[in-house]
Amino acid sequence: MFGAIGNIAFFILLVPYIESANRLNEYISHYEVASYARDDMQRAHQRARRSVTRDPSLHLRFEAHGRAFNIRLKRDLHVFGGDLRVVDSHHAPVHVDTSHVYHGHLLGEPGSAVFGSILDGVFEGKIISSEGGGAAYYVEKASRYFPPHHTNDSFHSIIYKDSDVQDPYASIRHGHGSGCGITDSVSQWMEKIQNSAVEEDEQIEEEEDEDDRRNTKTNSNKINSDTNTSNNSNNDNLGDDDKVILGRKTTKSKLPKKVLSANDGEKGAKKKVEKRGGGGGGGGGGGGGGGGGGEWRNDRETPFDKYSREANTRPYYEDGYATRSKRAARPKEDNRNTCSLFIQTDPLIWRHISQQVGDDPEKTREEILSLIAHHVTAVNYIYRDTKFDGRIEHRNIKFEVQRIKIDDETACQGGGGGGAGDSPSPFCFENIDVSNFLNLHSLGNHEAFCLAYVFTYRDFTGGTLGLAWVASASGASGGICEKFKTYTETIGGLYQSTKRSLNTGIITFVNYNSRVPPKVSQLTLAHEIGHNFGSPHDYPLACRPGGTPGNYIMFASATSGDRPNNSKFSSCSIGNISNVLDAIEDNKKRNCFKSSEGAFCGNKIVEAGEECDCGYDDDECLDECCYPRVISEQEHMKNQSARGCHRRAHTQCSPSQGPCCANNCHFIPAYQKMRCKSESECSWSSACDGRSSQCPLPAPKENKTRCNEGTQLCINGDCTGSICLEWGLQECFLTSHIIPNIDKRKLCELACQNGTDPDTCRSTSEFAEAVGLPALDAYSLHL
């Protein structure tokens, strides 16, 4: 009896604890419970996993924040590449199951989006509504925030709005802005490295595990105990000659004239920008200078060496905000828009996640895969919806994970380099400052990938959340697609050379001893990749407007995240990134992008899942019958159900669907007798019939009608038949076996044979005149 009373008392105490204490932690000011039957969800997931159909779907429904969430989910087959390879600390392949990763939408809300994962019947991810101004919600496991005895089958998930996420440490960060680890000293060091590349005429080879092991082993053995105290330095001496850099291979030599000294770095970078003028997409350090990271200081009023001249002086302003020039961009000639990713997770993040799942290795890997999928998908939503149009159109930029390396605790017990006698992985050292951590990652050969990132759970000084090398349209090395090559520098008066991959970056998931919420880490990843693509921090004022619209992704200080601009790129960032992408397209920089598969709304091609496709936005869409990919707020107000690449209300068709749709959005009637296809050699002309936007199939001409200058025959309306069919013969191929000592040039001539007898195979040139074939040159070459 007392036990029952105790349970009732516990329930009474627990419910107020969950429902009334709306503040979750220092980051999240309000949360609510997402309640649904997790057992039912797990069974639905297992059914979808075993389904023989390619796109099995499942449904999730719950209520919170004064509304109902009715979600349709299906497996996400895009975030991980078809050739995904996952390895452990010792580079051994690991079998993983990615069926728990999902994406979908809210039923009844066109334009909404959902992505996340389902583990043990619990959904975790992000919900983007198309209502209420596009409000976004994050769903997380309650066990991340509450002790085990406070969670159960009815209380397993929490949900909160993105507008309820604040940065409690924004006011105490010094020199690290929004959590990006680019201080002035870090920027100077990075600029010197990026401007010191030794160009080599080496053929790019695929990265092999042995190369990776060799690089890791060679460089990690150079780490000494002194570097473990570098966390206390806060990077103050990174610009000095005596700075210790992890794993650096040194060579004594005289100082080359082109290598900048520590005292000349700032001056040299400025001279280089002035000489290049408007050529750089951000320079090595951002827009014009040497690279580093696009840092600017509050006491520097005109950081002109961080931007291209074009981005700084663009005089296009509307309503106080900078906009891109309206010049027409040239369409790309191919569909290479996918950036391949190598993601490595270090032992510290393994330790953190493993403790949450009861030290279960399989569940830890599943959680890590989910973490990677959530962040890459979040970045995809930002980049694919941005038009990076310079001289060339760059649309639908997206990221695909190609390889993952998961370092577990065994990496810290020796063998981290791949052999039993190797030293522990250098990533096991906890007190590594952010620049050394990035440098350590950059020592590996990652040129087989567009970008290579390390995810860690280490509390960097100064509130740092990430760091990455900045791309430049010309001049400095670094950023997307960069090769593994040699860089020079001087340390302690010695000339040193080190091979690095500068297509790298890092992010962490802990800040001031608190786990950062997904919203913060996802925007951090988007921010750091923005550096890799060529954008420094936002400057001038037109590109950091503040106020109600808020600042943009590349703003140098923390943003609240709930303003319209917080998940967008400014026109300055777009300008710098576009310059880098233009340089890649012009073969001035290495192009490592891969071709995209699947439909893309906004490319003016009607593909699977689309009713029409008139372009990306209102500027491109000249079709009154179709919605573009990006729908304006005015159109949403007129029609709440408006969807991109779908027809507008009360329309019958769109001209993008076919030639038989008129500009008034109706089928062209048959009485107009409008010809939509001309007569060809094998088919008659065709006219619109008033029943479809597509041109009706034309009537075929009689089979065996000669076509292709009399060398082929029409079959069912197409010029595909062999001329041999006209005489009841079959086409064959001449060989030296059939006709010994034959002139090899005759082997290319069209030949016919009786039935299936190869011995009767003869060139048509032998009887061309007799049967009225055209001159020899017109038909003899069969290929």
What does this entry look like structurally?
Residues 217-237 have a biased composition (Low complexity). The protein has 783 residues and is of the alpha+beta class. The chain folds into 3 domains: 23-165, no CATH class; 171-224 and 237-585, Collagenase (Catalytic Domain) (3-Layer(aba) Sandwich), CATH 3.40.390; 706-779, no CATH class. The protein is 20% helix and 18% strand. It has 14 helices and 30 strands. Helix 8 crosses helix 10 (518-532). The longest helix is centred in the middle third of the chain and has 24 residues, at 361-384. Mean pLDDT is 78; it is low at 1-20, 202-326, 416-421 and 776-783.
Brief summary of the model shown:
The protein is of the alpha+beta class and 783 residues long.
Radius of gyration: 31 Å
Query: Order of strands side by side in the largest beta sheet?
Result: 1-9-8-7-6-5-3-2
Number of helical segments? Answer: 14
Corresponding CATH superfamily of the largest domain:
Collagenase (Catalytic Domain)
How would you sum up the global shape?
A: globular
The major sheet is characterized as: 8 strands, antiparallel
Domain Peptidase M12B: 337-581
Pfam family, one: Reprolysin_2
Binding site for Zn(2+): 527, 531, 537
Domain Disintegrin: 598-703
Blueprint (SSEs and pairs):
Blueprint (H helix, E strand, L loop, with lengths): L1 H18 L12 E2 L4 H13 L6 E8 L2 E9 L4 E8 L13 E6 L6 E7 L2 E7 L7 E6 L15 E5 L22 H11 L2 E2 L10 H12 L44 H12 L32 H5 L3 E2 L2 E2 L13 E10 L1 H10 L4 H24 L13 E9 L27 H9 L8 E6 L9 E3 L15 E8 L2 E8 L2 E5 L1 E2 L2 E2 L2 H15 L38 H15 L8 E2 L37 H6 L36 E3 L8 E2 L18 E2 L4 E4 L2 E5 L7 E3 L18 E3 L8 E2 L4 H4 L4 H4 L4
Parallel strand pairs: 4-14, 13-14, 13-15, 15-19
Antiparallel strand pairs: 1-9, 2-3, 3-5, 5-6, 6-7, 7-8, 8-9, 10-17, 11-12, 13-22, 16-19, 17-18, 20-21, 23-24, 25-26, 26-27, 28-29, 29-30
Helix pairs in contact: 8-10
